[in-house]
Amino acid sequence: MRLKGKVALITGAASGIGLATAKRFIEEGAVVAACDFNVDALNKASNELGQDYHPYKMDVSDHDGVKEIVDKIVADLGKIDILVNNAGITKDNFLIKMPEADFDAVINVNLKGVYNVTQAVVPYMMEKKSGVILNASSVVGVYGNIGQTNYVASKAGVIGMTKTWAKEFARYNVRVNAVAPGFIKTPMTSTVPQKVIDYMNSKTPLGRMGEAIEIANAYLFLASDEASYITGQVLGVDGGLVV
Ligand code: NAP
């Protein structure tokens, strides 16, 4: 049991990678504050995962709302040891066709959302002089991608915040790392056409898409004491897509 006695707040915990991470953390002894926008999906997951999965409706882009819910989680569960900033959305388009509203929406969830939740959670970790923060980036945040100006900007920004916070919070014994997944099978990628999937698989040395559990296992390692000397890093989990 690598997370016995730990409380983990996971955003976007009702679907895809966030749900797989909640499940994996609970298997390893954690209690999970599962935060998500999608109430139906939260309730479904709660019925499946049982009493260690505590659902909270949260819109990560709402600065004041996030603070209220984080304070409630600490009142309910006593503390937050691990934060996984996983919630994310895409609104893809070529730059010349990208509406301002779609640029803002993706930045507000994927980048500002990480700022909002971390700013609300980290004072509790500083007080205890202990904590782990894990952020969802992406391979495209490092290498760029056609048609994803907003998403790439958000995921590159997450890497910048990860490195900054690793330096800012090390003195409080808070580690901060990011995971950069490649192409993973989740509801987010479920509408990608088969010919694009075939192309991506042909470019991936391991020759297939990743599973959500493979990202969850990376979060588990980074959240555990096995990663006690790792901070400020971006761990690629992409089947060798970027080498
Ligand atoms: P997903 O299946 O779409 O799950 C994301 C969850 O976040 C959904 O339940 C979604 O709710 C929720 N969410 C959306 N906006 C939110 C908000 N404002 N506040 C709180 N929750 C919100 O996505 P995923 O594929 O698991 O992706 C998880 C993370 O990994 C994202 O940050 C993504 O960018 C990153 N990532 C994914 C891949 C991939 O190939 N799948 C690759 C690289 C990085 P709704 O259902 O209502 O939208």
CATH C-level class = Alpha Beta
Determine the CATH superfamily.
NAD(P)-binding Rossmann-like Domain
Beta content comes to 15-25%
Counted up, domains total 1
Biggest sheet strand line-up: 3-2-1-4-5-6-9
What letter string, H or E per element, gives the SSE order? EHEHEHEHHEHHEEHEHE
The pLDDT mean sits at: 97
* CATH-scheme architecture: 3-Layer(aba) Sandwich
The bound ligands are: NADP nicotinamide-adenine-dinucleotide phosphate
Which term fits the overall shape? globular
Instruction: Report the CATH topology name.
Output: Rossmann fold
Q: Secondary structure elements and their pairing?
A:
Layout: E1 7-11, H1 16-27, E2 31-36, H2 39-49, E3 53-57, H3 63-77, E4 82-85, H4 100-110, H5 112-128, E5 131-136, H6 139-143, H7 149-169, E6 174-181, E7 184-185, H8 194-203, E8 210-211, H9 212-223, E9 234-237
Parallel strand pairs: 1-2, 1-4, 2-3, 4-5, 5-6, 6-9, 7-8
Helix pairs in contact: 1-9, 3-5, 4-7, 5-7
Describe the structure.
The chain has a single domain (7-237), classed as Rossmann fold (3-Layer(aba) Sandwich). Helix 1 (16-27) packs across helix 9 (212-223) and helix 4 packs parallel to helix 7. The mean pLDDT is 97. With 243 residues, the chain is an alpha/beta fold. The protein has nine helices and nine strands. The structure holds NADP nicotinamide-adenine-dinucleotide phosphate (NAP). Residues 11-12, 14-18, 36-38, 41, 58-61, 86-89, 109, 113, 136, 138, 181, 183-184, 186-189 line the site of NADP nicotinamide-adenine-dinucleotide phosphate (NAP).
